[in-house]
Amino acid sequence: MKKAKVIGTVWATQKQETLKNSKLLLLQTLSFNDNAPKGTPFVAVDTVQAGIGDCVFYVTSKEATFPLKSRFAAVDASVVGIIDQTTVHGKTEHYL
Amino acid sequence: MKKAKVIGTVWATQKQETLKNSKLLLLQTLSFNDNAPKGTPFVAVDTVQAGIGDCVFYVTSKEATFPLKSRFAAVDASVVGIIDQTTVHGKTEHYL
Amino acid sequence: MKKAKVIGTVWATQKQETLKNSKLLLLQTLSFNDNAPKGTPFVAVDTVQAGIGDCVFYVTSKEATFPLKSRFAAVDASVVGIIDQTTVHGKTEHYL
Amino acid sequence: MKKAKVIGTVWATQKQETLKNSKLLLLQTLSFNDNAPKGTPFVAVDTVQAGIGDCVFYVTSKEATFPLKSRFAAVDASVVGIIDQTTVHGKTEHYL
Amino acid sequence: MKKAKVIGTVWATQKQETLKNSKLLLLQTLSFNDNAPKGTPFVAVDTVQAGIGDCVFYVTSKEATFPLKSRFAAVDASVVGIIDQTTVHGKTEHYL
Fold first, then answer.
1. pLDDT of residue D55
2. A52 touching D, CB under 8 A?
3. How does pLDDT run across C55-65, given as a tens digit for each residue?
4. Nearest Cβ partner of E59 from C10, C24, C75?
């Protein structure tokens, strides 16, 4: 799982049926070393009531479908936790 | 899921059986930051009646098979929504 | 799915049981923009009777196993169609 | 599977249900050639009681869910072994 | 599937249960163009009695679990064949 900041939202009226009622968030991956942005933003489905500005961790690929009601949703990235605190090389950082 | 523009189509008479009756679109991934093209175009199956020029989001890998009638189609990318609007870092963009 | 040219073949006597009777092709991925080679060649299983020199599209990962008789073949890339024609940015190209 | 060093831990109160009771470790991938760090740290679930400083190997993607009690946990990386010893090009290295 | 040379072995006493009795090989991917090494070495499970120095091809991701007795082994790379011969752009190479 990687760390990301929620930076936006996406709206789509015409979408695949299993995505109805899903909240689509736009995420920017951040490095655990220095919080630098990695790669470009992408769309993920929310499963933990995350909001704009939250620091979260997400799963990609097949795993992303499991937290949804339907096991077969057309999803390849899901937010699965909101980060409270990390300890990296003995240094603790608080996020809330 | 990533954002892409539909830039073309692909025809194949001789193809794996589960792909019969599927519309094959050619997609170019675009960055959510500045709409710059990312990587090279690829083939995806349409599930939402997208057309040339539409801005869409797509899933890759195993998830791509679920929106199709057969859960076992030989597909690794599917268009699953047509984007209406995005809000990134508080800035809203309309696509339709 | 990506586009590739069939550039060779691979023989292996000692191989995992589910691969017996499979034709192993060597593919070179080509860009849809300018047909430039992308990455290095790799081994894929044939499911559409493709031959040396054919322009094909292939699936990777789990999807690659579905066109085979056994759903559990030890395969991560399969040729699933021979390309007849593409239209990219309004320009049509014929392959046969 | 790749080699990594356990460099930290992650805490999240608000997380997807299948992750409750899982220990979340922060891993840094290391090269088997020279132990140089590869890429940036990421979060993995522990299945072998690994601790800070241990040299481990991990699986990514769908496989990562299997060692957990629930086969459908929202996980895409798991620690599956603690490395005792490697032999690379005839040179043996001990880790414990 | 990609081509690799078996360059070493890995030992781990403390490992995830489904990995007991599996031989863990260290592989270096080689290019089919010029046999140049690609990327860094990684751990794969042996399913064809490959040994140090053998030229093999391997599968990655979910497919890697199928050749094993348990379909749910915590594995993401498996050796599935030992290469006898390749023909690339009409040039034949023998490996045994």
1. 96
2. no
3. 999 988 655 55
4. C75
